[in-house]
Structure to design on (536 residues):
């Protein structure tokens, strides 16, 4: 199917249940007040399994002898794999909802809806957490991190990130966002060289400030509408009393600020480079994909459902922020010096800020042209970005074990680790949107089309300019992999020293992400099948 048809194909499948009433499968039973709930356990299984696995790991850590603590990592990986598998029973049918209440008119308001939108972003969150867990297995052992605490925090954060896309009221959204965020602070701080504590403090202070602002916004919205359910808020905002309209508008702005922080939108991006450099490398990869996916899902929900009446206001604001975000991220990545310590991780951090700008474009376009296209384009690009970005962090972990993570440390990598270098080159070309990384080009075309269809020609021009800027630093990094240099010296000298054998989990992570990126580039229609409806 041509790329131009992606938004049209994805949109109806992703958003058909966002603007209407979901199919209620779990209402109050024999209780006019709606206080007795019949919980749909199948619907809540994906985040619930991740949470229960976290508790099981924490308890097992108390009783397992030290020599068997390595089993905790395997159990965590198995738990996340089971959580991903729990998405399958929810596919192919009508949306399932639970934790529902009824008002006197009999209208249902549900706090949890497992519709197509939720399933796609839960796949991104749980799948990203699974890859991050595979990447973490060797890191926990080699860095001597506390295994029980590490795996508990990772699983807890993943459960919050999986809960957020299915949340349909502001209270659940805030709780899910904090469940995803609070363990992440501690994960960053687990690094023992002092850098982790500094990074965690910056991350914590900026996040807490954003959360406080968002909670104030939730209070304003509740005061103006009398409800926390997104569907009720959407119906109430156009009819709010004149004296409460400024309160509602201020509340909407403040709520958006909290989610903008999670997506690392300018000017709420300043925590990203220091946090990624200071965190353990798998945690940095986790934050770049799963943390961003959680914030993006929340932003899409509150704009597409709760605040859709204010699309004429938040649409232009998000469009400007998207342009500023992609420009700030790409220009900062362009300025990274090849001899800077941790320069490769810092470049990936700034690159993730630039990618956040691209991810924001379709949501901004929805403010100008309400419809399903934005959700399809955002989900497709998010899935593509998640695979290749985690793959790049996996290769950074490989290189960091033997040398360092300066950009110069990658010079001549092809001579010593041929397949690793080829994998990183492919990931970088996907991020740049160049063949043979067809899937990256596929995603950028879809996002570009969303801007053009909404009449945002100026934003499409800004995006095109930023793609050219990003091409330069991605290609410079790719060229270093094949250039002769210090990394190639042992092989050139005929020393015959074999490369240090990689841990199985690290090899599996690189191979898994590379295989996924290659398959998606050869068969880009698989993105349509996962995010567009043939599998769901």
């Amino acid at each position: 199917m041509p790329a131009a048809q992606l938004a049209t194909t994805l949109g109806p499948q992703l958003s058909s249940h966002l603007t209407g009433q979901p199919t209620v499968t779990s209402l109050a039973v024999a209780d006019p007040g709606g206080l007795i709930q019949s919980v749909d356990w199948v619907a809540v299984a994906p985040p619930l399994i991740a949470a229960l696995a976290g508790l099981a790991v924490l308890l097992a850590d108390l009783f397992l002898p030290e020599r068997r603590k390595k089993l905790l990592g395997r159990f965590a990986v198995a738990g996340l794999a089971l959580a991903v598998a729990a998405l399958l029973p929810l596919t192919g049918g009508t949306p399932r909802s639970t934790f529902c209440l009824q008002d006197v008119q009999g209208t249902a308001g549900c706090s949890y809806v497992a519709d197509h939108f939720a399933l796609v972003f839960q796949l991104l969150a749980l799948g990203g957490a699974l890859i991050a867990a595979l990447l973490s297995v060797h890191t926990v052992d080699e860095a001597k991190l506390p295994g029980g605490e590490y795996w508990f925090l990772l699983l807890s954060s993943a459960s919050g990130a999986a809960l957020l896309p299915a949340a349909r009221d502001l209270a659940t959204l805030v709780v899910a966002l904090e469940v995803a965020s609070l363990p992440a602070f501690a994960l960053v701080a687990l690094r023992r060289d002092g850098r982790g504590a500094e990074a965690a403090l910056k991350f914590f202070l900026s996040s807490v400030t954003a959360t406080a602002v968002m909670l104030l916004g939730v209070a304003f919205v509740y005061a103006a509408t009398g409800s926390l359910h997104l569907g009720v808020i959407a119906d109430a905002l156009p009819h709010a009393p004149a004296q409460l309209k400024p309160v509602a508008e201020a509340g909407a702005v403040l709520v958006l600020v909290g989610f903008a922080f999670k997506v690392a939108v300018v000017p709420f991006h300043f925590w990203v480079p220091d946090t990624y450099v200071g965190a353990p490398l798998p945690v940095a990869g986790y934050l770049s994909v799963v943390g961003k996916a959680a914030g993006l899902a929340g932003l899409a929900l509150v704009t597409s459902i709760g605040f859709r009446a204010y699309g004429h206001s938040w649409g232009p604001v998000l469009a400007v922020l998207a342009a500023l975000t992609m420009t700030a991220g790409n220009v900062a990545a362009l300025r990274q010096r090849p001899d800077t310590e941790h320069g490769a991780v810092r470049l990936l951090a700034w690159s993730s800020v630039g990618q956040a700008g691209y991810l924001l474009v379709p949501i901004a376009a929805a403010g100008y042209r309400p419809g399903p296209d934005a959700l399809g384009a955002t989900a497709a690009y998010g899935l593509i970005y998640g695979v290749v970005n985690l793959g790049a962090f996996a290769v950074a972990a490989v290189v960091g074990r033997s040398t360092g993570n300066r950009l110069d440390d990658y010079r001549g990598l092809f001579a010593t680790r041929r397949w690793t270098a080829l994998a990183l080159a492919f990931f970088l070309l996907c991020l740049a949107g160049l063949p043979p990384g067809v899937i990256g080009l596929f995603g950028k075309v879809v996002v570009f089309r969303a801007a053009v269809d909404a009449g945002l020609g100026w934003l499409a021009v800004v995006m095109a300019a930023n793609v050219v800027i990003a091409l330069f630093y991605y290609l410079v990094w790719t060229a270093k992999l094949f250039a002769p240099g210090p990394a190639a010296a042992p092989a050139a000298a005929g020393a015959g020293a074999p490369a240090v054998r990689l841990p199985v989990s690290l090899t599996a992570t690189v191979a898994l992400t590379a295989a996924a990126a290659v398959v998606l580039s050869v068969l880009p229609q698989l993105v349509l099948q996962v995010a567009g409806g043939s599998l769901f």
